[in-house]
Amino acid sequence: MNRKILGMYVKLSTSLRTQIAVILTLTLVVGMTAAGGWFKWNANWEKHLSAAFQSGISLSDVVVQNLDASNSNLQAHTAGFDLSIVEPQQITSADNTVNLRFHDLDGRTFETRFSILDFRETNDFEGNRIPIRVFSRKLVYSLGTMHGVENAGLSARFGHLVRTLTNYCGDTLMFVNIDEGQWLRIGGPNIWGCESAPKDWRLPIFIIAGIVFGTFLTIGMSAVDRLDNLSGEIERRAKTGRIAPIKPSGPREILAISAAVNDYFDREKNRLEQRANLLSGISHDLGTPATRLKLRAALIDDSGLRTKFEGDIDQITSMIESVLAYTRNEMNIEEPRKVSLHSLVQSVVDDYADIGLPVTLSPMKAESIEGTGTIFKSGSKRSEVNLSDQRRLLCSCRPNAIRRALSNLIDNAIKYGKSANVTLSATSECIRISVQDTGGLNTSFDFENMIEPFTRGDNAVHRKGIGLGLTIVSNIALSHGGKLTFESDTEGTCTTLTLPR
FRET partner for 369 with CA separation of 20 to 30 A, picked from 102, 284, 297, 347? Predict the structure, then answer.
């Protein structure tokens, strides 16, 4: 039996749709329970106040009896109140003001003084004032703002008074002046005491409801986070071109999406491998005939015809190698690793300089950073920072691909300009490799269109190439999560390869 229950739980927990339905249902149940508890307590509290109001009306009858007659028939407990007659001590102050001192207050030091008007006499338009004193341990009551007593009789006024004291839920003593020198002492712990009030479960209910709701919300957001992580994994693979399987985790629907994406990646990887193998086979098969053609071209006596044959054969060989390089870059066979990009760029520039080509590497400029304000200085100010350890400009990349991209940019700069000046700059987020040629200002080129495969400019008609150089560089930049940009000035064209760190 336990295995069946466990199996059903696992089945339900692995379904995102079921998880959402269960979470919404439980949240609704918890919310309705909390709301029901709130309304039930309000109803019980209103019932408690109504009972206190009725007790106040009964108390008024006792007060009236003592006002109209003697206290010989006073009962000790009437309508839930503890009653007794007391005579407070009269104390005359230095300014001849008479104050009353009540005994047995038991630490009730906060005193509230007021009076209630008695309109029982038909010919009495002003009413008789009945002095009342209320003593409490915690507060002075604001009894002058009691609602519903404007046109009420004496019994209703006492009802509202007791209701107000009950609403504050305090351990109070009330004294009513029934005769000169005599006061009716009224204790009502069973009426207005906190022990008699209905238990207030609102705070615990809403704390538990908040915890449960937070738990459900966390569970629901975890499913959303899994979807967000899955989309991030797919986006990173789309940007970098790394066809690697996604580790499946989460509910059944997310596992199905991960499996479908992994299946697509496998098919795409197999397709690229088949294309690379096909091109590699074609290159291998064409290599032997191309070599024989070059040997036979060497036997041609006509030097002009021989030169044309050799040029065509070299162009065919170059096209095959370029297509193979483009395909290898798409497959991303090389694994990325962390290298010193300054050393890599320096080695590429040195290789060109060793064979006498005009390729130089400019020293890195000082980088400016923005400082933050302190308690002694407000605002921000940019300061220059010299990168003394340039050779440790670390970057996670595929070094052979970066070397190929930089070589293509330098080849283009030399081919279509007079020289190539390489500049390396870095920030905390990215590294920029810029190659500046000296071909002069030329605004007729659509540089964004030049990165398309087999696209060449008008100035490349009489130069070797098939139009894949910039395409390979752009793909290498995109596979690293970077980009390739162009900018023209009076000196020539500056091509910048931006790579994330």
Answer: 347
- CA nearest 243: which of 266, 271, 273? 266
E strands in 287-380? 337-340, 359-361, 367-370
pLDDT of residue 379 exceeding 90: no
pTM as predicted:
0.49
Q: What's the pLDDT tens digit per position in 176-199?
A: 998 888 899 999 888 988 888 888
Given the structure tokens 């307590």, which residue do they identify? 41
DSSP string, 379-434: S--EEEE----GGG-EEEE-HHHHHHHHHHHHHHHHHHSS-EEEEEEE-SSEEEEE
- Amino acid of residue 469: G
Residue 280 lies in a domain: no
CATH code where residue 355 lies: 3.30.565.10
Which of 179, 196, 213 lies at the terminal end of a domain, its last residue?
196
Which residues make Cβ contacts (< 8 Å) with residue 487, sequence separation at least 6?
A: 493, 494, 496
User: What number of other Cβ atoms are within 10 A of residue 281's Cβ?
Assistant: 10
Query: Looking at the chain, how many residues does it have?
Result: 501
If DSSP codes are grouped into helix, strand and coil, which group holds residue 80?
coil
**Angle of CA points 433, 434, 440, to nearest 5°:** 170
User: Is residue 297 a part of any domain in this protein?
Assistant: no
Q: Which of 196, 220, 244 is the last residue of a domain?
A: 196
